[in-house]
Amino acid sequence: MKRIGIVTSGGDCSGMNAAIRSATRTALGMGVQVVGFRKGYLGVLKGDHLEMGSKEVAGILHRGGTFLQSARSDEFRTEAGREKAVRRIREIGVEGLVIIGGDGSLKGALALHRLGVPVIGIPASIDNDIPFTDMALGVDTALNNIIYAVDCIKDTASSHDRAFVIEVMGRNSGYLATMAAIATGAEYAIIPEVEVDLAELCNQLRHRYEEGRSNAIILMAEGAGKAENIAETIKDAIGFETRVTVLGHYQRGGAPSYFDRMIGSRLGNVAAKLLLAGERGKMVGLNCSEIVATPLESVVVSEKRQQDELFGLAAILGV
Asked: According to the model, what pLDDT value does residue 316 have?
């Protein structure tokens, strides 16, 4: 290969720029030209790209999000749209792609692979719901953002004898809520993978109140229900003054943590090397500190489940 492209797709997260920078400089060091497609698959369809040398990726390592930007594309989800994307890629002279993104982005990568475009995927999702990698890009930074916010909220919860229901991102994954609950000492984590027993939750909080502990933090994954309903139930059941805080997109942004800078750099380096060595249709992931490549066919049909022992730990420590 003489020319490869890099795409960041789907939801942004910290660490993407580290992966872009690493993949770019690795390829350049091997004598290969690099182009970056702006705004994900939408940019691929439009042929919207920029030539990337070492200068173009300087000064991006410490920035959150993706300097290539990202966007959704309904057209790319269609067969005709994907065939159009392949034509654009070939018109630009790109012979292979490094694609950085979540589950939907990796499904798009697999579709391009099946149409004859060599691809290597890099998992990037703060939900940490992508299988065959211990951690995806952005997870560690998001957790640190959540922990900082919860620590701040705990101060006002203790000052005013309140129960706070704090909604974090996660869709159908309770990873962020569970891990943040352990790390912040939250009293409860509500996640989609485990049906919540609101009566038992209220009993636990009532017991805390009777012991003289008149504030509480409950972390809730966004896919587990409505935070407002949980707050009202708590208020009606035990008389706690309750508040709801939705952290929203605050979790995604900010300077990437050391871990996300390192994993982004490692994944970007290996992705570029594998692509240029003739590998295709794979995702690189972190497995027990090693970078391991897994076929995209396996990645997109598998499910990463919440670890029961972690949820159990969160429940025990919250008592």
From this structure: 79
